[in-house]
Amino acid sequence: MSDVDRLAVFGDIHGNADALAAVIDAIRDAGIARALCTGDVVLRGTQPEECIAAVRETGWPCVGGNTDRRVANKKMKKQTDLRDLRPGTRTWTKAVLSDDAVAWLDSLPELVEDNLGPHRVVAIHGDRTVPPGLVDHDATDGELIAIMDALGADVLAVAHTHKRMIRNIDGRIVINPGSVGEGTGDDHRPTWGWLESGPDGVHAAIEYVDAPLAPPRDKNHRKGE
Fold first, then answer.
1. In terms of CATH, what superfamily is 5-64+107-208?
2. Cβ partners under 8 Å of residue 100, min gap 6
C-alpha cells in the first residue's frame, strides 16, 4: 500500500468556465481525487453560473474570495434590466446569477481544510488573514509562520494575487497556484497546483494547462466590479 497522499489546489476562476473545465480535467487526468478551491469563483468573466455549477458538482470544498463576497453582498440588489450593464461587472454578474447561486456564494466559508497524510492543509483566499496581512511574495517567513500557527496549518494554500508561489519554510509549505481564469502578462494558460505527502514530507508543484484559455484581466473594469 502506498504511503503517498495527493491533493490539488486551484482558485481565481473569475467566471471563466472553459479554463475551469480544463483545470478540473487536468486534476482528474493526474489521478488526483481531492482538491481545495481557494475562491474568487466569479466576477469579470462572463460564465459565473457555469463556474459555480462546476465547482459545486466536484464536491470539493471552496472558500469565499473577495469577489465572491462582493457579488453575494446582501446590500447590493439585483438589477432586472441588463441592457446598460457591461458583462463581467459586479452588477451584471449578480443580475445573471440564479438566487441559488448567489446563496451558495454567500455560504462560502473563509477557511476550508483537509488532511494530507499526517499534515493539515488549510486553504484561505489570502486577502485577509488571522493575524491580519496579505499573503504574497513580500510576506516574510516569520509572517507566514505566524499565520500558519494561528490557523493550525502545516500547509497553507492561498490565492488572490494571481502570482504563482511555493514557499518551503522548515518543512512547512505555502502555495499559491496562480489563476485558473485570468492569465498574467503574455501567458494565457490556466494554472493549478498539487501537494504530495510521502515518507520524506510534503512536496508541492504548480502545473499549467497547455492552452490559451485564460486571457489577461480586463483593465477597463473599475476597481470593485
1. Metallo-dependent phosphatases (3.60.21.10)
2. none
Instruction: Indicate the pTM of the whole model.
Output: 0.92
Single-letter amino acid, residue 25: D
Residues with Cβ < 8 Å from 125, sequence gap 6 or more? 11, 38, 39, 40, 63, 64, 65, 66, 110, 158, 159, 160
What is the rounded distance in angstroms from the CA atom of residue 22 to the CA atom of residue 139?
31
The residues spanned by each domain of the chain are: 5-64+107-208
206-219 pLDDT, tens digit per residue, is 999 999 999 987 65
Question: How many alpha carbons fall within 13 Å on the CB side of residue 171?
Answer: 7
Query: Residue 126 is placed in which grid cell?
Result: 489570502
pLDDT tens digits along 113-134: 999 999 999 999 988 765 555 6
